[in-house]
Every structure is written in structure tokens, then in C-alpha cells.
Amino acid sequence: LPSPCPRDPFLSPDSHMDVQGYKWVHWRVWLCRLVALLSLGALLILFHWRPRLGVLARCRSCPLALAEVLLLRDVSYSVVSFSFEMLGRQEEAEWRDTVQLHKEEKTLLHYYLFEGLRYVWLDRKGAFCPVSVLNEDWTCKDLYGFQKGLSPREQSSRRSMFGVNLIDVPVKSYMRLLFEEVLNPFYIFQVFSIVLWTTDEYYFYALCIFIISIISISISLYETRKQSITLRNMAQFITNVTIRRESGEEDCVNSVELVPGDCLIIPQEGLLLPCDAALLAGECLVNESMLTGESVPVLKTPLPAADRTYSSETEHRHTLFCGTQIIQAKGGGPGGGGAVAVVTSTGFLTAKGALVSSIMYPQQLNFSFQKDAMKFLLILGSLAFCGTIYIFVILFKANVTWPEIIVRCLDIVTIAVPPALPAAITTGAIYAQSRLKKHGIFCINPPRINVGGKVSVFCFDKTGTLTEEGLDVWGVMEGGPAGFSELVPDPRLLPPGHMQSALACCHTVTLLRGQPLGDPLELKMVESTGWTLQEPEGDGDVVNAEYGGHKVLAVMRPPTQQLFLHRNSSEAVAIVKRFPFSSALQRMSVLTVATGGRSAMVFVKGSPEMVASLCRADTVPPQFSSTLHTFSSEGLRVLALACKPVDVNSDLINIERADAEKDLQFLGLLMMKNLVKPESAKVINVLRLAQIRNVMVTGDNILTAVNVAKSCGMVGSDEKVIFVTASPHTAQSLPTLRFSLEDEVAAQRSTDVMDQSLYQGGFDYHLAINGKSFAALCDHFPEYLPKVLMKATVFARMLPDQKAQLVKELQKLNYRVGMCGDGANDCGALRAADVGVSLSEAEASVASPFTSKTENISCVPLLIREGRCSLVTSFSLFRYMALYSLIQFCSVLILNTVKTTLADFQFLFCDLFLVTLLALFMGKGGPSEELYPRRPPASLLSLPVFGSLFIQTCMIVLGQLSAVFITKTQEWYIPLNSTVFGTENLPNMENACVFNLSGYQYIFMAVVVTKSYPHKKPLYHNVIFLCILLIHFAVMTWLVLYPGPFFSQVFKLYNFTDMNFKMLLCAVAALNFLICFLLIDLGALNCLRLLRGKRPSKKQYKRLNVLLSDSTSWLPLNQTLTPRDHTVIHFS
């Protein structure tokens, strides 16, 4: 498993912050205080919204070493102040330059806290750095020096430096939350609006909005504090642990007191780890599902005492992570129980701290939708400004008093700019998150749901994702200089020897309460041999003596009855040292001792290519490559095994891995059948029909991966696979790049035909590349990399870092990249992807923003459908909220022109009863059952969106003006009183006709904007919304046709007596609806798209696709290219 290490740039985005230093300028500070007083606190509110302005106004720039205030710029600006701590004299020269001397006997620690992490001033670097840099130079050998324990003085000093071992999630008081919530621009605007409405005598409307705002704030405060408390309960873990003091005594302390360098004693029964620690002695069986989602317990082995720098990322098989459950510890303490580890990270610097930090401070998305929403608010603000000028001119000409003019002008701003717009467009994501949770998909970053709707390529891990987790042994073949033996389907039929011992011993399977636990592949391998695993009991002295006094970890005993009759039966073998599997090394190994300590042997298991490269050439069969090709092409998982005798009298425990795993003797191949999950092919087909690219990224052999790609439908039966082979620069040769067909015979037959332009000649093909070639391609052939990425479907033998690099390279081509994996080796790629889905039992994983409890990829289409549904819902709500403002804006402008306005209850009826209910339930409709090839748009500032809003606004204005003109043409029309203005003119005919028609417009515009086919279910599936529409239509029709004297008085409506006129108003509203629904949203939008024409796409992968389609030189089959052979295809 990879380390969920906080040094990972995806988990610690603050590592690249821009930091600027400032000092207070006293006269500026006092001047700002005076201005804040004169502005009644408005300046302080501005500084609260824009901290950078507050710093620039009150401070001057200065060197970081002299700074009193820091301005941090990551995604946005943050301001932090410093803390100082007095420390005792530091003895270590390494630490002496990290602090500033204060007097002679004291040390001043200069640091600040940001997002839970402590940053200290380092003189030698001239910068503030995470406190973790103080131990980043520790080597593995240095960690063994801490086995003797720390002195109390040293512990106290380190605690002052690193802080307490606590993942402290702040839970703010209700008063502080209220203060921060009230200072939100939305609520400031609401306060301004309520004051204005009260001044304008809209008392009941102002009171209702005030009550709703109070309820909204209360719910928001409760939910915010509840989430903080839940997260704190999950993050904060305090327990008692045993540590070793410098004196050699063991002491029980609170876990909060732990510091890096403490020697931790782990009991045999295990514990929930409160810190990150490197294992020094013994073995630990660890459940890491809470962090990585990996359900299989992992065996952790002691850290090699090497001179290389320690990193939890590279040494993850020897590192115990905070928040993981140690199930059992053995072999490290007296009596053979327990283990010994040294603390390496505490608090937010741990793996669990990184997970909590990613939840508290999620990465900001580079997604145009949210940015466009804020830009559109500015456009509406500009419209409000124009409306204000118009009203000012109209009222000034009408000789209205200045207070009335000011109130009327400001009132236009509150109508034209809907402050709830940013909040309303998140409703779709909230509904989608709720639906996903019901399907077992959990999301810790809801804005990512909308991004899921734009995914254009989805990457899949193979083992455990596309294929079953477990494998069945298919057969073994022994090999040597003379070649391979016959295939043996059952390993128990093998004759006694090194091959059988390697299969039985080369694993990290362990026992828990008598039951074997470990990697499913290794469990199947051991089970197939029939050998049994035994572990020493107690201190193990008896077993150790049986095997020459060596410290025994486990004993593998052969079955009592051999299935294959041989004169010599197999002997029991003791495992004394394990080198766990490493994705980077592509192998694992064990060191074993025979009974009586007669001999010692190293057994190695790993990828065939890697193991063969470590073997002596004279021991590898000549048919190795062809045999491997044959089995891999059949989709089998192939592992190679090798061995080497070692001197039994040498220091076996401290043998270096590099020494143990060289000059090996090749033993043979183990073939395992890995079945494709039944759901995989269905899901891949669904994605292909939706024109979403599918890519396989695996650590397995390239031929096995290609076979699985064909089995699950990524590669069609009539499609060709072309292998990309790139070699790096060596002393003997230049870098080379070659494209060759999968079948060499087919290559010779069809090369001439395909060279005429495979890309445009009717052949559909896929590229396949392995990790080594991918690295060489990136380093030496960057001009070919985008073209290979365009058609590559299989990426094999990819290291975890290369998976993350692949995701980033695809993103550079403007792909929206999804990644689905098991949350283990795919951790970096899952975090790098726009939409990362971890197949895991955990509800929150350090691996990715999405976690699915479904053990197959059927969650992927569901997530994309929900993303598309959420995105189109957000678009609908955005358009509706904008149109709601524009309808009311037009109504008020028209009525103010004729010296009247809307009544108090009319505003209340439109805003609360009509609009709020419709907007609340508009997003409740679920996603469609199928994925459509065309993805929904994500840009709000596009011609179709703007064009439709503009035309609909024109239709709204025409509809309301038509109602006014029709009213004025009636014989019974009575002009209103021109000597008074506003509500004093109510009720009147102009107000009644405009209110009646605008009421219908609020209703039918909700229908117009919710047409979301094909990404959302039809309107009739959203039963609640449909019922509300019908109720609203009925109520509005009743108010038009027969409001009655009571409601006419409440709404200050003029009650027309002419039923024919009332029916005419309803007909105008119906015509207005039909024009907007049919002509505009169907015809006009298509006309706008035609007028715009088919413009070149801004996405690089689409532009490159067009260029490649027109190229006659792509693809250069069976040509050996060097960096001098530049491509003729370029794009900027």
C-alpha cells in the first residue's frame, strides 16, 4: 500500500504557498480605526471580506525575518499572526539554526499555525517551513538510535517545537459562528434590504424575510457546529501508551504528550495508533481500511537499518499510520510478544491528520461554473445600476421627494440582484449527494459532483477494480538453463525442491487467532501447496533452537502425505526475515532457514521481467520471453520465482535487501487466473456508448492487461492494439521510440496498408504502453506524448507515481479525468483526478473525494449521471433565479414609470409562496437512467445561455407591456392618480394586470428552465415539484378570475368585473408561455447555435484529434524514431 503521507502534494496543497511579510505602521492603524468609526464599521467589514486590503492599508512590506504579520496566498489570501515560545538551550547543532537567540540562555521559537500545521522560522533557509522539515533528514539508521528513548528534557523541548500530538478540529462557539455568518455578504445584503423595506413601509414583507433569515442562520449555525463536532469526534483520539525512557524504564503516558523520536512499545494485542511510527522490532498486522480503504490487513515488518533518508511514502510497508488499528504485534518484545516503533509524525502531520485536513480544507476547483455565477451577479449589478438611473430620471421628472427617490433607487438594487443565487445553485449538488449516499457512494467534497458531469475520460485500475480481487492458481512451470518443464496444474504435484519451497514460503501471510490473513493472491498460492503456517508461541525459544538459534517469524510445514510419490519428502522451513512487496521494486522476498540451521535460502517472487533481470543469465530459460508472452496473452497473471543460497553463519537479520536479491537462480513461473468482474464489461460498454474514453492503468504485465482490456470491452474484437516501446538514453545508444502491431505476422501483412494513414483509413486502434516506455516517452519524446495519450488505452507496469503523472498529463490536454481504484496503490492518481472514486468500505478515505461501498465499477455511470443531473439542475436554478429577478425588475420598472408599484403582500406572495417553493423542489428530480453521448455545458457565460435569457427577458417585458396596453384600451379603464406615487396609488388597474401576468410568468418559467432532457428524468418524475406547479397555477388562476373582496383587500388588487378581460389576461399568459417554451427554448437556441457556427474547440485534445485526422504521417508503424525525428504535427 502507498503511504497516505502528508508530504504528498495532493494532501498538502499549502506546501507551495506564497508568503509575504509585513510590519504594523501605527499611524495607518489609527487612521483605519478612525475611518472605521466614521463609516460605522463598514471598513472593518470590508477588511473581513478582503484580508489582503486590511494588511496593505495598515502595514508596510518587510523581510520575513522581521515580519509581525504574514500574508499567505494559496487559492486566496489569509492573514496570520505569530506565536512565540521560550525554549531551553538546544544541544543539537541541527536545531540551533532553526531559532533566534534571546538573551544568552534562552531560545525564541518563531512560528505560526495555518490549517492545523505549524510553520517555524528557519534561519538557514530564510523562510517559514512546516515543522516536519526538522526531521526530514532522518535516515533509517538514525531512527534506530531512538530505540533507547528520549530524556524528559528532550521530550519537553520537542513538544515545544512540534506541539502536542492532537488533531484538534476547532469547534467555534455559537456566538462566533453567528458573528461570522452575519458578516457574510449575503446576510449583509439582507440586512440592508430589510432596513430599506422597513423605510418604504413594507413592514410585513420585511418581518417575514427577517424571520426566514433568522431561521436560515439558526439552521446553518446548528449544521456547521454539528459537522465540526462530528469531525472532531472522528479526528480527536486520546489514549494511554507505553514509551521507553532514556533510563531504559517503560512509562505509561498520555498520547497527547508523544513527540517525534519517542520510542513506542506496542502491546501484543495491538492498539489504535495515535501517531505515525516506524516499526523497528517485531511484526504488526494492521487494518488500514480507515485511511486507504484497503480491507485486507497488511503485515508491517521492521524498518531496514540503512543509510537512506526515511520517508513514510517509500517505507510504507515498515510504517504504522495514525488512525489505523494494529490487530496484533509479535516478535519485538520480551517473551516474543509486542513490537517496538519510533514516533515519526504527530498531530496534523500524520496520515490521519492529512485526511482530516483534506475534509476541513478541500482543494479549490478550477471549474468555470462557480466562477461564471459570480461574474453573472456583477452583470445583474450593472443592470441594476442602469435601472437605478432610469428610475432616478423618471422620479425626478415627476417631482418626487428626494428621500422617496433614494429609497426607490436602492429598492431596484435589491430586486435586480438576487443574493441567494450562489446558494441556490448548490441545491443540485446537495440533492445529488443525498441520492449517492443511498447508493453507498460517499462524498467529502460536494462541489466535485458537478465536475463529475463533465468527465471525458475515465481511468481504471485492473486488479480488484475491473477484475476479481482473488485469483485461482492455474499452474506452475519449473525452468532452468535447459528450458521449461511441463506445465503442472497443481503445485502439490511438484517434486520436493526449491520451487515448492518458494511457493510455500515467499509470502507475508500471518495468523490471527489461528486463521491465516494476508493478500488474497498469497493466500491462494499457499493454499495450493498444501503447506501449513505455524507461528512461534511465547518467547519462541524452542522453535528458535530447532532452527539453529535464529529468530523465527514463522514455520512452513509440508503436508503429512505427499500427493506425488517421491523418495525424498519436503522438510519444514523457517522464515527468519521478510522484505515486503514494493510496487516500485515489483517484488518481495523472504529469508529462510532449514531445520537445525543447516542452510539458509533467499526466495524471491515478483514480476517475471524484474525477477529475470535479478537472476544469473545462465539460469534463465532461453524460451523465457516467448513463454511469458504466451501466458500473458491468455490473460493469466504470471509471477516468477527465484532463489539463492546464503551463508547460514552470516548476519541474516541485518542482511541488506539489495544483497539478498541479486545473482539469483531462476526457479520457474506461477500462473494465476484473474477473472473479469461480470459488471465490468457492462459498465465499459455504457461509457463507450456515452463517448467517454476508458483507460486501464495497472501494475500488471502489458499482455495480461491487453487481454483483460479485450475481455471487458475496452478494446473491441475488430480493433487493433499497437504497442508503444520507448527506450531511454544509455551510454551505448540514443533514446528510441517504436510503434509495432500486437501480432508480428499481422504486422508484416498489413503494415503497408495501415501506413497509408491508419488514423483516417477506417482502422480503429488502441495504443498500449508500459511504465518504462511511458517514462522514456515523457523524458525524451515530449512532442509525441500528447498523441500517444490521445489513443492509449492500456498503461501497464505503472508505478503509483506514474499513475498520478498520467492523470496530470491527460488534464494538460483539457480532459476532465475520472479515476477508479481500490484506494491503495492508486492513492496519488485518485487525489490528482478531477473525480476520484475509491472502492472501499470506509465512508471517508484519504484516497479520494468519492468512496463507494460497491465492490465493482457499477458506481461510475451512476456517479457521472448524478454529476450531469446536478450540473443541469444548477443551470436550471441559475436561470430561474436570474429570470425571477428580471421578471420582478421589469414589473417594478413598468409600474414605477406609471407612478405605482407592487404591494407588500404581492412581493411576499411572489417571493415566498411562488419562487421559493419552486426553487426549493426544482432540483429534486433524479438523473436519467441512461448516459447520453453529449455532455451538459458548464459555462454560464456562453451565447446560448445569454441569448436565451435575453430573448426570454424580452418576452417577459412584452408580455407585461401587452397586459398594460390591453388594460388601457378597455372602455372601463380608469387612469390612476398622477399626484401621488407608489403604494398610495394602490389598488389600481395597471398594478393588477402586471401582478397577474408576472405571477403566471414565475410559474411557467420554472417549467421552461427545467427541461433537462436527456440528463435528467422528465418533469413528471418530480412529483412534489409537479404538485406545487399545479397548486400555484390553481391559486394564480383563482386570484385572476375571482380573488374575492378579502384577498383583494389583502393583496391590494383591483378586482376587474369584466370576466372576458380576465380570460384575455390568462390567454396572454398562455401565449407568453408557449412562445418561451416552444419558440425560444427549442427554435431560438438552435438558431443561436447556428449563428455562432461551429467554432474550433478550446480543448486541446479535440483540436489535436482534428489535426491527427488530417495527418498522412501518423501513425509511423514499425519505424524506429529518435529525438531528432520531429513530428510534423504541432498545436499551441
From TrEMBL:
It is a multi-pass membrane protein. Signal peptide: none annotated. GO terms for biological process: autophagosome-lysosome fusion; intracellular calcium ion homeostasis; regulation of autophagosome size; regulation of mitochondrion organization. GO terms for cellular component: late endosome membrane. Belongs to the cation transport ATPase (P-type) (TC 3.A.3) family. Type V subfamily. NCBIfam families: ATPase_P-type, P-ATPase-V. This is ATPase cation transporting 13A2. It comes from Kryptolebias marmoratus (Mangrove killifish).
